[in-house]
Every structure is written in C-alpha cells, then in structure tokens.
Amino acid sequence: MEAEYDGTIFSLFSILDKVFCENKLPDKIIRKNMDFGFSSLSSKSSDMQGELFNTLQDADEKSSKDVYSLNVSYACSSAAYKYFDPCRKSFSGQEIIKYSGMAYKDILYTWMSELPVEREVVHFAWKIVSIGRMQVMKKRSAAEKARCDLADINVQKVINAASKARRESHFLMGILRFSIGPSSVPIARCSPDYFILPTLAHHFTQRFGNSNWAIIDEKRDIALMRAGQEPAKLMRFDPGHPWFKEEVDPNKEDFNDWEKMWKNYHTSISNESRSKPNLQRRFIPVRYWKYIPELRG
Asked: Apex CA 164: angle with CA 159 and CA 169, to 5°?
C-alpha cells in the first residue's frame, strides 16, 4: 500500500493509525510537500501548536501515564490541548504510549527535527507496538529494549533525529540572550537548525515568571510569546506587533543599556591570557555568535 504524508504531525499519525489497524506497513510514503506543513498553518492553529510541547518537559523522567494525563482545568482552558488531542488519543498514539511513553516522545521530537525520515518513523513505531503486543507479561520492558535497538537502521535514524532536536533545544536554553525591546519586553532571537522553539516554552515560563517575553525564530519567521499569566504561544512573527515594531537594530553599538552592562561585565571577568578561540567555537558554533552580545563582531 501507499501512504501520503503532507508534513503535519496529524498526517503522520493518520498513517500510523492505518498501519496499526491493518497490521501492514506501507510499501511507499509519498511526500506531498517539503515544508512539513508549517507554511499552511493558520495563525490560530500555530498558536495552539506552541502549547503542546509545554507538556513534554518531564516525559523523560515520568511514566507515560503521568506524562500524558494533563491537569483537567488546564486541558479545558487550553486550545492547544484540543488541537493535538487527535494525535495523543488516536488509536496509534494510545498504542505507542501503552508500550513506551519515551517512544511516543521520540516520534514528536523526530517530527520537530524536520528531517525526511517519515518512513523510518513508521517502521520504528510498528516495531515498538508489535513487540509490545507479543510480550504480554513484560510488554513495557520489551518495547523499551526495542526502542534502544540501534542495530536496526530505522530505530537508529529515528533516535538520531530526535536526539538532534533534543540537543539543540537544551543548547538554546543555555545560550539565548535577551535584550529589552521597545515595550520593555525581553526579546531573544535565534535561527535554530530544527523546529524546537516550542520546547523552550516551559523553561522560559519558569525563568521569567509572569513577565512578558518573546523568542523569535528568524529562520522560520515565527515567535514564541508569553503575555502576563497566559500560556506561551507560538505564532507567526509580526514585525508590526507593539513588542517588535520599534526594535533597535542589534548590530548597532548603542543597542541598549542592558547589553552594554552585560558586555562590560563579560569584559571585566574575562582573562585574555586564557582565551581559547578554537575551544570556544567547539562549544558555541560561529553561526550562533551574531545572537550573543559578547561574541558579536
């Protein structure tokens, strides 16, 4: 059989639904477009999408039962929960979560990596579920072993893609630099290799409390924004938004006082005799330097 994939997470789970129901892997997966559905998202659905990944921060440590059962009051008030509900509650989603919550999360991160590995994702999910179904008494441990079977090329590609997205997400949590915008709102800019902006929502919500803040992904022209006590939302970047429309050029020397103070602080604590540019490039690749005041220029 053939399956069509339009780049969205919903299309991917629709393929998995059919695979698990018919117990048959597709011979071919046809990609209808190459933008993974982001360009076709409306601003409303994009807002919703940013909320889903706020529920992922503890998935590595907790069981799937704990991770994927959200607080009832939050679920009722969050449009994002309703937007991604078909994925989580689909037949394939429930089957994967039943045997391995981590495998379910791997699939989400692999999708965020934007890499063309949908065929491998389908085979990966099928392996987890088929082994879980066979092992009645120890279904979870058997499925987890299958998830870590890197000798399987499909598993290897999925885990590698998911690891890339995870790694960049954690990396940006440490190197993002915020500057005060025209409306006294902290704003950070970046151009991540992967679509990981939504995974930053929980970390920076905790970091900033109830303050307004925004992170702009210049590569995809989207912004993660939080206003007051509302949940952080992912939306199309609008240069005309009050938070951004009078933003100062970050390449100018007199960007703002906060950045000047940070540069002075960095200069005062640095030890030029111990400077190791090659090591610095290994830890922070040059492509990120334009967003870091102490390294810019």
From this structure: 125
Could you say which DSSP state residue 152 is in? S
User: Region 143-155: what's the mean pLDDT?
Assistant: 91
| pLDDT band with cut points at 50, 70 and 90 for residue 38 | very low
Smallest Cα–Cα separation from 113: which of 23, 15, 192?
192
- CA 82, distance to chain mean position in Å, is 18
Distance, in Å, from the CA atom of 186 to the CA atom of 194, rounded to the nearest integer, reads 23
Measured CA to CA, the distance from residue 83 to residue 49 in angstroms comes to 7
Strands 179-180 and 28-31, sheet pairing: unpaired
Residue 271: how many CA atoms within 13 Å on its side-chain side? Answer: 2
Higher pLDDT, 49 or 178: 178
| pLDDT beyond 80 at 158 | yes
pTM of the model: 0.75
Strands 213-217 and 222-226: antiparallel
Residue 139, CA distances (Å) to 43, 99, 136, 145 in order? 41, 6, 5, 10
